[in-house]
Specification:
The chain is an all-beta fold. 1% of the residues lie in helices and 35% in strands.
Length: 363
C-alpha cells in the first residue's frame, strides 16, 4: 500500500483500488511531431476546472518530487474490521503508479494504458481514457514498437503529471499524451528508446522543469507542454527506473538522475556526470538547499555549485552504508535524510555530515 500524504489518499496496488482516508488538508495549502487528437466526449458529470488553489502548481510523482507535505495531517490508521477512516474506495485497475491530486479529482493509471479520473469527493470514476495503439492516429501507429511481453513493472508505472491545468501521462510503451481535466486529449506522441533500463521496464515518471515536460525515456527527452513537440533530447543521461530530481542553482533549473548525471533543463546539455560515483536503479535523488542526496545502499550527498559556470565537484560530501538494497525513495526534511531499505530498516541520517541519528526496524 502506498500513501500520498497530501490528501491522505492510499492506492492499494495489489487490488487495483484507490482508497481515501478521512482526514484531508485544506486546499489552500528530430523526431516526428506530436499529433493533436480529441478523445471521446467527457461524461456528463465532468470535473470542475482547476481551482485557484491548484492553478499554476505542479503535482506528480511524490507531489512536487520531494515527498514532503508540510501542511498535511494524514491519518496513521485505516481499514480494519471497522473500516476506520475510510471515506470511499474506487476500483481503478492495477498499477504501480502513485495517485496525483488535481483540484477536485484524483488521477491514476491502470494497466496497460489507461488514465483514470476519480472524484476526490465521493470516489466515483468520472472518466477513463485508453492510450494504446488503437488510440493513435494512423500515421503514428508505425512509430510504436511491436511485440515484446509486459515488463515486470508493467506499462502503467509512471505517475501522471498535473501542471495546474493539464494532465501529462506517460506509459512504458513510449506513448505520452496530454489531457485537460474534462478528459479531452490535447496531443499525443510516441517516444523512442533503444532498450528498457531493466527487467522492470520504463518505470520513471515525467517531471516539469523549466517549462518543459521532461520524460526519462531513452535518456531524457523534453517536450513542449502545449504541443508535445520535442525541444531537446539527451541520450547520454542513462535511463534508470528512478524519476529525476529537479534542482535549482542560481537562476538555472537542472535535472539530476539516479545514475548521477546532471543536465541543464534549458537545453538538455550534460553539465556533470558521475555525481557521487553512484548508480541507483530505483530510488530517486533528493534535492534540498543546494545538496543532492542519493538514498541507496550507500547513501551519498553531493554539493552542487552555487550557479552555472562554477565547477562541479563530483566527489561526495559524505557517504554512509545502509543495511540492505534500497528500492523506495527517501525524504530529506529539517536537516535529516530518511531512508528505508529492503530489509525494512528505517534510518535517519544527519544531512550535514552523514552521521547516523538512529535506526529502527519497521514492523
Amino acid at each position: 500500500m502506498q500513501k500520498l500524504s497530501l490528501v491522505a489518499l492510499m492506492l492499494c496496488l495489489g487490488s487495483g483500488s484507490l482508497l481515501a482516508a478521512a482526514e484531508a488538508v485544506d486546499e489552500k495549502t528530430a523526431a516526428p511531431a506530436a499529433a493533436k487528437v480529441e478523445a471521446a466526449p467527457a461524461a456528463a458529470n465532468a470535473p470542475a476546472p482547476a481551482t485557484a488553489a491548484t492553478a499554476g502548481k505542479t503535482y506528480g510523482w511524490r507531489g512536487d518530487g520531494s515527498g514532503v507535505f508540510a501542511d498535511a495531517k494524514p491519518c496513521t490508521v485505516w481499514g480494519g474490521d471497522k473500516n476506520a477512516n475510510v471515506l470511499w474506495t474506487a476500483d481503478t485497475g492495477k498499477s504501480y503508479a502513485g495517485p496525483t491530486v488535481a483540484g477536485d479529482v484524483v488521477l491514476v493509471t491502470a494497466e496497460p494504458d489507461k488514465l483514470v479520473c476519480v472524484s476526490r469527493k465521493d470516489g466515483k470514476v468520472r472518466w477513463t481514457r485508453e492510450n494504446g495503439a488503437e488510440s493513435l492516429p494512423a500515421e503514428m501507429k508505425k512509430e510504436l514498437k511491436e511485440g515484446g511481453s509486459m515488463p515486470g513493472g508493467g506499462f502503467a508505472t509512471p505517475t501522471p503529471l498535473f501542471d495546474g491545468k493539464r494532465i501529462f501521462v506517460l506509459f512504458g510503451t513510449g506513448i505520452i499524451a496530454c489531457y485537460d481535466l474534462d478528459g479531452k486529449r490535447q496531443w499525443v506522441r510516441v517516444l523512442q528508446a533503444e532498450s528498457a533500463p531493466g527487467e522492470a521496464g520504463h518505470c520513471a515518471s515525467p517531471v516539469l522543469a523549466d517549462g518543459k515536460v521532461v520524460c526519462p525515456f531513452g535518456g531524457l527527452q523534453a517536450l513542449n507542454p502545449d504541443t508535445g513537440a520535442l525541444v531537446w533530447q539527451n541520450r547520454e543521461a542513462m535511463e534508470t527506473c528512478s524519476t529525476p530530481a529537479v534542482a535549482k542553482i542560481g537562476d538555472a533549473t537542472l535535472l539530476v538522475t539516479g545514475s548521477g548525471d546532471c543536465v541543464n533543463a534549458k537545453d538538455g546539455k550534460t553539465l556533470a556526470a558521475g555525481l557521487g560515483d553512484v548508480s541507483m536503479m530505483y530510488p530517486s535523488p533528493l534535492f534540498l538547499d543546494g545538496v543532492v542526496y542519493f538514498p541507496g545502499r550507500t547513501t551519498v550527498a553531493v554539493k552542487l555549485p552555487a550557479k552555472l559556470g562554477e565547477k562541479f565537484n563530483t566527489k561526495p560530501l559524505w557517504s554512509v552504508d545502509i543495511e540492505s538494497d534500497v528500492f523506495g525513495t527517501g525524504v530529506s526534511n529539517d536537516g535529516i535524510v530518511y531512508v528505508a531499505d529492503g530489509a525494512a530498516m528505517f534510518s535517519a541520517i544527519d544531512a550535514k555530515d552523514g552521521k547516523l541519528i538512529y535506526k529502527k526496524q519497521l514492523d
